[in-house]
Specification:
By secondary structure, this protein is an alpha/beta fold. The protein has 2 domains: 268 residues, 3-Layer(aba) Sandwich (Aldehyde Dehydrogenase, Chain A, domain 1), CATH 3.40.605; 179 residues, Aldehyde Dehydrogenase, Chain A, domain 2, CATH 3.40.309.10. It has 15 helices and 21 strands. The strands form 5 sheets. Strands 13-14-15-12-11-17-18 form a 7-stranded mixed beta sheet, sandwiched between helices. Strands 8-7-6-9-10-20 form a 6-stranded mixed beta sheet, with helices on both faces. A 3-stranded mixed beta sheet has the order 1-3-2. Strand 17, helix 14 and strand 18 form a beta-alpha-beta unit. Helix 4 runs parallel beside helix 5. It is globular and about 75 Å long.
Length: 481
């Protein structure tokens, strides 16, 4: 049976590069072929986007942008089931979670509209002294320029809407480069935007034929803003090569810490932490990875947590009852297995998992007290593994949680307001959840990594703000007393 072919989504461009095949993570079967962009296509996309931005008469009016985003949200709602199934096939996220992702993506587009309705500038106080007399000042927003969005595989629909939606809302021409593992979800989103009325040239989607071309795309001086979601190694490298004046936002990952205090409610904590740790097989930038548990309750917690993990259903993402799907590639299964083996050899107690189920799936795993120096304790595993550590005093747990060079979202489970506030005040991170897992997110909230975990602030309204320029007008008149 022939697979669908996805053409270049760059208006007027043709490529001499060979197609590539997209495979489903679970059984590595081919699900699509995708056209690849050569150097000429990348150059054409940049020229086209830059010329659009420089031609102010061609800018999309605000009302038209709102109409496009609302129309796209409505089309996505009508096609939600198909989008969810195809995203699950392509990216390996279980269908039950993929459906939630599509609902979030729809809401993300509507969030962009809401942000446009509520923030169009501000009044700057004048006439406060002699120097500012006879003046009225205010700002309005303009697009920052050409946006290049480099996206990740783990949320192939919603990440695209978080990057492309604000660009369209801001009025920026945008070029989006999806993850090579999950390009078809991106192409479907861009097609929906075009169907909703976005002129083709305002959003191009492409997968360059090699990493060197991707770097050329990102670092071109015509790029005004880079939105990057992916590994810290790649993100920081690209930032160091940006052209002078190019702004950016980088979203990387963390090794998310959770503190479980002695008074924690297990009935709330364990289901939340299982979901936060094994959702999308742990392939989430704020996935629960390090759980610090007060020693008086440690044995009971480990027993109940392990029992809950044992009930998780591992399988094909497109099946309705699957809770943990495949890792994105077989190499990732091997890597995760090696990290777990290293921890066990170093003295970690393995209570469940620790083995491959197939070449594409790894058993949900629990490790107790792995060495502090082990990879599993110091780096983002991006796999279905949760580590549990005992602590004597909560400040010891906070110190361990803060000991790494990454800092993203953290959490604490407790019935005590004082304990919750102590953790909030002292845990490194940009968000601390109380009685919830670290992977909680809604699309209008700020979402940002600190230190090695990222740069700038994500979340639809915040991304929209970054993709705009606040342009001030100052009026002077003797009538302004």
């Amino acid at each position: 049976m022939s697979q669908p072919r996805f053409e270049l989504m760059v208006k007027g461009a043709k490529s001499a590069a060979a197609d590539f095949t997209v495979e489903t993570p679970f059984d590595r079967s081919a699900i699509a072929t995708v056209a690849t962009a050569d150097a000429g296509v990348v150059s054409h996309a940049l020229n086209q986007a830059h010329q659009l931005y420089r031609n102010r008469d061609a800018w999309l009016p605000l009302a038209q942008r709102i109409e496009i985003l609302n129309g796209a949200a409505n089309l996505m709602h009508a096609r939600a089931e198909t989008l969810a199934v195809e995203a699950a096939r392509e990216g390996g996220k279980p269908l039950i979670d993929s459906k939630v992702e599509i609902a979030r993506a729809i809401d993300s587009l509507r969030c962009a509209v809401d942000a446009l309705r509520t923030d169009q500038g501000e009044v700057i106080p004048m006439r406060l002294n002699k120097a500012s007399g006879e003046r009225l000042a205010f700002t309005q927003t303009e697009p920052i320029g050409v946006v290049v969005a480099v996206s990740a595989f783990n949320h192939p629909v919603n990440l695209i809407t978080h990057q492309v939606g604000p660009a369209i809302a801001a009025g920026c021409p945008v070029i989006v480069k999806p993850a090579r593992a999950t390009p078809t979800s991106c192409f479907r989103v861009v097609e929906i935007l075009r169907e909703a009325g976005l002129p083709d040239e305002w959003c191009s989607a492409l997968v360059p034929e090699n990493n060197e071309l991707t770097t050329k795309l990102v670092t071109d001086p015509r790029v005004a803003f880079l939105s990057f979601i992916g590994s810290a190694k790649v993100g920081w490298s690209l930032r160091s090569q940006l052209a002078p004046g190019t702004r950016c936002a980088l979203e990387h990952g963390g090794v998310a810490p959770v503190i479980v205090a002695e008074d924690a409610d297990f009935d709330k904590a364990i289901p939340a932490l299982v979901k936060g740790g094994y959702y999308h097989a742990g392939q989430v930038c704020v996935s629960v990875q390090r759980v610090y548990v007060a020693k008086p309750i440690l044995a009971k917690f480990v027993e109940q947590f392990t029992a809950a993990v044992a009930k998780l259903k591992v399988g094909n993402a497109i099946l309705a009852d699957t809770e943990v799907g495949a890792l994105i590639t077989p190499d990732e299964v091997t890597r995760v297995g090696n990290w777990v083996d290293e921890a066990v050899k170093g003295g970690a107690k393995l209570t469940i998992g620790g083995k491959t189920i197939s070449k594409t799936t790894y058993a949900p795993t629990v490790l107790v007290d792995p060495p502090a120096s082990a990879k599993i304790s110091t780096a983002e595993v991006f796999g279905p593994v949760v580590c549990i550590y005992g602590f004597d005093h909560i400040d010891d747990a906070i110190a361990s949680a803060n000991s790494l060079d990454v800092s993203f979202q953290a959490a604490v489970f407790t019935r005590s307001m004082d304990t919750a506030l102590r953790c909030y005040q002292r845990l490194d991170g940009t968000a601390v959840m109380v009685n919830d897992h670290t992977a909680f997110r809604v699309d209008w909230m700020p979402f940002a990594g600190a230190r090695h975990s990222g740069y700038g602030v994500g979340g639809v309204p915040y991304t929209l703000h970054d993709m705009q320029i606040r342009k001030m007008l100052v009026l002077k008149s003797p009538e302004l007393k």
